[in-house]
């Protein structure tokens, strides 16, 4: 019994002027999430790459609604990848008539969305996709952030008291 692969709608952005490493930092946060959650995350993140990725996610959703007639509430980000593009090479004038090469990296970003309602119509795939995609936001909210309880609280420890052994005394 062979499963038919459902269509996946893409949006591709090429030669975006930023390094692939900086774009991957944002892409890793949105992979596997729903369309509405992705837009909210991209609006609130403080990185420059968010604007380019936001436009691509919006374009992929528009492609899905126009080509397949999908509803935007049923879309999930099934594929999100960043590849390195060509470097734009420039020369900067330096002292004594010399030149200095400048390489500005570019990247290619691919966003793929899938309509989850196509999968939920069949009974055999329902449990697989509910567990994999629908509860993804719930599972990430249960995960504890790694930065909690790493810093000492200055309110609990009185730095200026003499009980600490005179740490701040300069006699």
Q: Could you explain the architecture of this structure?
A:
Strands 1-5-2 form a three-stranded antiparallel β-sheet. Strands 3-4 form a two-stranded antiparallel ribbon. Residues about 150-160 have low confidence and may be disordered. The chain has helices at about 20-30, 35-45, 50-65, 115-120, 125-135, 135-140; strands at about 10-15, 75-85, 90-95, 100-105, 105-115. It contains six helices and five strands; from the N terminus they run βαααββββααα. A hairpin with a 5-residue loop joins strand 3 (about 90-95) and strand 4. The protein has a single domain (about 10-90, about 100-150), classed as Ribosomal protein L22/L17 (Ribosomal Protein L22, Chain A). Helix 2 (about 35-45) runs antiparallel to helix 3 (about 50-65). Helices cover about 35% and strands about 25% of the residues. By secondary structure, it is α+β, with helices and mostly antiparallel strands.
């Amino acid at each position: 019994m062979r499963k038919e692969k459902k269509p996946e709608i893409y949006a591709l952005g090429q030669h975006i002027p930023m390094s692939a490493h900086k774009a991957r930092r944002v892409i890793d946060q949105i992979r596997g999430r729903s369309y509405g959650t992705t837009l909210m995350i991209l609006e609130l993140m403080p990185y420059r790459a968010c604007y380019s990725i936001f436009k691509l996610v919006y374009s992929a959703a528009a492609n899905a609604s126009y080509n397949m007639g999908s509803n935007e509430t049923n879309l999930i980000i099934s594929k999100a990848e960043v590849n390195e593009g060509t470097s734009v090479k420039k020369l900067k004038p330096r002292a004594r008539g010399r030149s200095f090469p400048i390489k500005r990296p570019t990247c290619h970003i691919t966003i793929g969305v899938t309509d989850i309602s196509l999968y939920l119509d069949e009974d055999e795939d329902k449990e697989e996709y509910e567990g994999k995609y629908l509860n993804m936001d719930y599972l990430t909210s249960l995960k504890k952030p790694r930065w909690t309880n790493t810093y000492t609280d200055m309110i609990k420890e009185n730095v200026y008291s003499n009980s600490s052994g005179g740490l701040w005394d300069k006699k």
